[in-house]
Amino acid sequence: MKVFKTAALSVSLILILFSCATVQETSTGVPEYYGFGQADSMVQALAQAKGAAVREAVLEMIGPASEAAHREELGKLLYSPEAAPAFLKNETVEVLRRSEVSGRWNMEIAVQADLLAIEKVLRANGVFGGKVAPGGSLGDGSKGARGSDIPKTTPEAQPAEASDTALSAEEGPSTEEESAEEVVSVTPEERRFILSYVDRMTYMVYFDDGSGQDPFLMEAAVGIANKYLAEQGLPVIDQDQIVRIKKDQEIAYEEQTGEDVSIIQWIARKLNADVYIELDAVTRGETENGKYYGNANITLKLFDTSTATLLGSVPYNSPMTFSASSEFDAVVNALQSSIYKAMPMAMNQAKVYMQKALERGVQYDLLIQNTPDSRLMSDFRRKLRKRVRDVRTISASAEETRYEVYIIGTIEDLEDAIYDITESMPGLEDIELVYFRGKSITFDTGL
User: Fold this and answer.
1) What whole-number distance in Å separates Cα of residue 268 and Cα of residue 278?
2) Confidence class of residue 29 from pLDDT cuts 50, 70 and 90?
3) Which of 33, 36, 300, 328 has its CA 20 to 30 A from that of 49?
4) Which uninterrupted H or E stretch holds 5?
5) What is residue 39's three-state secondary structure?
6) How far apart are CA 280 and CA 298, in angstroms?
7) Per-residue pLDDT at 254
């Protein structure tokens, strides 16, 4: 009997130890959060990784919806390079991966977070959700914390030193650290172009007129979003242009695309938008004791104009807003409050995606008129491909040939590349520019 009890106790201890080990794959059993950063210096990349780790802790505490709704203020309070270290146990930082590619540093870390300190900030600023509920006792958000999932991109390589001071700028990346995903041949000059391009992207905002929502309110919502963009110094596409093109050029859309792309994506391309935003809203107005109140629950969905890829989706629900004049004004106030909160978060999601997507290049439409010699145009395409990121033939005939060209540069850079190529190509040495506008450029071979 004594032997049986001893064996049972041993089995119990093994089971307990195993269950603790599987909760979180760390050496201490304490929840860890993973963060990734990328910047021009190792120090900046580490600071970004710390902010990302704090965000992982916040996501576990309040949930994705609440975090997305308050991301702008949380970014300043918790995620910024200046704020994040105060909410981490910096002595536990473990660098899982670091590498330098084309002048850009990548850093991935695991670190323990000060969950109580984070929760104090959340409660003090009225940010609730998930485990952090109004009126709850401090510490609710840290109960049952498990940490964030181990990133799939993390290589099983020997970890670097844990302390920040142990990171040496003289150390270069090992061959094992340079995965195929990381090794992207983007020069520092191209990287600067991409960052500059992303900061001045053109956004097109529209609403689905078949959604059943009040069109007057939705037009007001689009106008508010465009006002926000104008205040940021960005080009604004007037919604009247969208309506006019949609009404007057539907036949051209069907002829040019065969409806392979949506009409909104086609319009966004024609108007040279880099990103188009679909705005949806559910509004509510009420009158009480002669006072008018409004509420707006909005969703912004962002798409890459080139590919129609969904870049992000940002929901926001406004608090009740007041107007002394009408319910309509109260609802418009609620729309403005929601849109001005959601737009910065939506644009940040778009910028993060586009920085990566533009490593393939900016897409331009190239049309060359009078192309009767197919072999000559094939030779031209091969030579052009060596000067740009990619070239795709869309259509070809004796009258004209259309291409999609991807280049990390402006349309003027593409024009210069074409002149450089054709000046040594018999048959194309007299090629002339017909016109260019936005992201479309047309040449005539003169043949």
Assistant:
1) 12
2) low
3) 300
4) helix 2-23
5) strand
6) 6
7) 62
Closest CA to 339 of 290, 384, 277: 277
What pLDDT shows up at residue 212? Answer: 74
Backbone torsions φ then ψ of 236, nearest 5 degrees: -115, 130
Which residues share a beta bridge with 297? 282, 317
Give the pLDDT confidence of 399-427 residue by residue, as tens digits: 999 999 999 999 999 999 999 999 999 99
Q: Hey, how many other C-beta atoms are within 10 angstroms of the C-beta on 28?
A: 9
* pLDDT for the residue numbered 15: 37
Beta carbons within 8 Å of 113's beta carbon, 6+ residues apart: 31, 33, 53, 54, 57, 87, 88, 89
| Residues 79, 83, 85, 87, CA torsion sign | negative
Would you list the DSSP string of 239-307?
HHHHHHHHHH-HHHHHHHHTTSS-HHHHHHHHTT-SEEEEEEEEEEEEEETTEEEEEEEEEEEEEETTT
Three-class SS of residue 191? Answer: helix
pLDDT tens digit string along 83-99?
A: 888 889 888 888 888 88
Q: Alpha helices, DSSP H only, in 89-131?
A: 115-124
Residue 255 above 90 pLDDT? no
How many angstroms separate the CA atoms of 121 and 61, rounded?
A: 12
Residue where the block lists tokens 């009258």: 399
Q: What DSSP letter does each residue of 370-381 carry, written as one string?
A: ----HHHHHHHH
pLDDT exceeds cutoff 70 at 142: yes
- Residue 285: beta bridge partners? 294
Report the phi/psi class of residue 212: left, alpha or beta, with left for phi > 0 and alpha for psi in -120 to 50: left
Q: How far apart are CA 68 and CA 84, in angstroms?
A: 18
Which residue's entry shows tokens 């007037």?
238
Over its C-alpha atoms, the chain yields an Rg (Å, rounded) of: 27
Q: 111 near 32, Cβ under 8 Å?
A: yes
Mapped onto helix, strand or coil, the DSSP state of residue 447 is: coil
Token output for 362: 């900016």
DSSP one-letter string for 329-358: HHHHHHHHHHHHHHHHHHHHHHHHHHHHHG
Which of 324, 283, 306, 311 has the alpha carbon at shortest distance from 365? Answer: 306
pLDDT digits (tens, 9 = 90+) for 69-87: 889 889 988 998 888 888 8
Lowest mean pLDDT among 208-212, 267-271, 394-398, 417-421: 208-212
Compare 356 and 144 and report the one with higher pLDDT.
Answer: 356
